[in-house]
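During the reporting period the student researcher (J.K.) took over the structure-prediction task from the postdoctoral fellow and processed the backlog of single-chain submissions. One of the processed entries is reproduced below for the supervisory committee.
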Amino acid sequence: MRKVIDKKTACRAVVLLLALLAVLSIFPFRIWTKVDSFTAGGQRLDESEFVNIEYHLSQQFVTQYDRLSSIQIYVTDVEKGRYISATLMDKYYGELFYAYVDTSKFQIPGYVTIPIEYDVEVGEVYYLYLSGCRSKYSVAYESVESDSAYVGGVFRDGVDVPARHLAAIYNYRLPISKTLSLELIAGILAVALILWAAIGLYFRKRPDRNTLVTVRQALKVVANPIIAIFFGSLMVMVFPLRIFDMRVLDIVFYEIGLMISAGIAFYAVNHKTVRHEVGISFWEGIDSGNKVRYILMMFSMAMSIWYACDYMNDLYDIYHTLSERRMLIWLLIFMIFTLSYKELVNMVNILWLIGSVIYGVHYYQVNALADTEKEYDLHNMILKYGIIIVILGGLLVLNLIRLLVRFVMDVLSKDIQKKSSEYRLSPYGFLVLVFLASIVIMRNTRWWGVALAVTFTCLYIRLSVWKNREDFIKIVSGGLMMNFAISLVFSLLHRYFAGYVSGRFGFLFHTVTVTAEYFTFMGAVAAVLLTAKIVALPNHIGIKQVIKTAWKEIVLFGWIASYAIFTVSRTAYLAMGVCILLVLIVTAARYKKQFFRMLLVMIVSVIVCFPGAFTLQRIIPAMVARPVVYAIDDTDEFIRGGAAWDSPNFMCVERFAGLFAGKILGISVGDYNYPVDLYNYDPVTGDPYLDYYGNDYEGSDEQEQKYGFVTDYDPDELLASAAITRAELGILMLTEEVNEYVDSSNIIDVLSNGRITIFRSYLKELNLSGHDEMGAELPNGEIAVHAHNTYIQVAYDHGVIVGALFILFIIGGIVCGAAYYKREKKEPLALMPFAVVLGFAVAGISEWVFMFSNPMTLALMFAIAPLLFQKKAK
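J.K. obtained the following structure tokens:
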């Protein structure tokens, strides 16, 4: 950033950078799209069919491309009301997406567009289900010609209508064509070359203006206008355009959030860099020659944790295997980066690579499944990943063999003392190796323990001979934070901040319980990074200097804590709060009188960052409209596709405040102020103008009682923009019933949703040898799949002796982590192992978090590495 270049070079670099971004947006990101239409090819007929609350139509169709943008249906008449209720269903009639369309916006008779923007599987059968929404309307049929493209049958209340299709146009969103893409790329390159030549000509004629600038100054010229345009546009969209919400509270809150986010972005670009002492952060103090390698190691670690997170969302064994193998590949890549050039590039490794790649290709060709087999693509991918693991693992095995041979030769030559490093295995390191050996010996059919033990034993052996071992703690800290950065970008692009059904934000996961685990160790590490910056400053330094010095860590901690708050999870708050509090206490034990300053900075960081994080998470994914919805995600169907940006089913300030107050504080802040549909509901009384048939509502209609949303909840007939939406009513009618096996006389069991009962059931089954299968029988006969407690689960799986070793392993990590921090006074990040082990220990009380493919387990095994070695006494 401080490198000095002339203005001509800077201008040309900016042109090339902008051209590169423009090209990347075309390919491979393929941001620019077009919409292609598909029809069955029949003729629209004069005959039509009416639809209302009782009489429905469903059209079967086969998808042609992977992004269904919209479906246009021909409406001949809207006799009553004004809304069409449309549902997208899969081939099993599972409801994927709801939409309600106001027909008054279209010319009737004519085509009415149902916006969908939903990712589908090409060639699969789907259904468009049409119903009334306090309305009655008619839709046209079309004939089925002999040369018509296959769409599927149309069904009237489940009965097939022969020789007819619904008169409809199916619109798919596709990337722009290859030809147009190449033309645009060629045009961009041509413009870039013209500007390149023009810049050279300009400075050749005016050499006096070709002064020197820094790279940072050049980036400022580009970044500042982009930031201003981006956030300025969003602020105008919030108000006066009111695209995202009509309510004053939300508009004000979003504007504040955007101003805070813009302020952070401008400060990041324009601030003066503060020089710190060596070791203040995971980046500073690193030798410049190692930075590229360390970035790659951090990225490899971040990706291994990413796929561990992916594993937690998978529901089937085949997907678990895919995620696990991807994770293992990145772990192997991480370890390979610890090899020196001489260790990596030698004749033995080259011969292994050539031979293993050739044989791997042959093995894949022989064993790959044909495309006629079920799930052939997934099985072949698993096979491919297995071959890659063998190839990469072979490099490490060859290195370990060389290390072993060298060690034996040194012992035989009695030269071991001269060549041994200044470090040796610590008592805690010995305990860790014994524990890893125990889960292998007492594996009881579980092979993930073997994979865990072998993988991390290899890593620890590599670290024992790695000359840069002292930087490992910086790499781990950076890798964890890089994973959060990658996850944050994914969340902002693909995870809707939904207000319903539960309203609790799962971040990367389908359950907030796993999200709580994730933010426990991420929050602990962020707290360490922040405290490391704060304690390095003298006590008399004011808040302004603290912000200048630690602004990145302040924003990082504030953003992580804000997303943890979004979960509205008591588990997340308690676990993260305990970890952060103990981090502050241990830090304050070394740095006197710093506790309250650290605590104050953390509180302020959350207060400042929360509006920005909330606003961006609410707005950006809705604009991108590419939501990732997991198989058991509880986001309601109204916003599972390209939902309207102002949909009331997105999270809003009032909804979040009520949810937080009810779930966490146990208090009611009043009724939620629902958005009012002026066309269907009286804004004063909330009563509907029309009954479910579209007739005038008189308050005592029999059908209103039959289909009423108070006594008999019908999930299909509630308008998303109405006084009470389907999801809103669902959450209001939902009462949190505890499971049958919960001991209602035990308040702790009730609050923990039966965990005490589960603990007791598992404790009764403990023995010395462990169990082959998971699952303990509960008092009501149900089977608890796992113990919801890591310590009990390990003892149940592997036996009580291994369970005791595991407890010693965790307690030892906490104690040794604190001692390590006390001993390593020159390394403020030395508290990181303590923080991660502590976060794991706390999360493990209420959840099962110890497994090879659990992100908390990976973070734990990486973090304890510095504790396994100690300096030899001189």
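The committee noted the following: Residues 376-412 form the longest helix (37 residues).
J.K. will present the remaining backlog at the next meeting.
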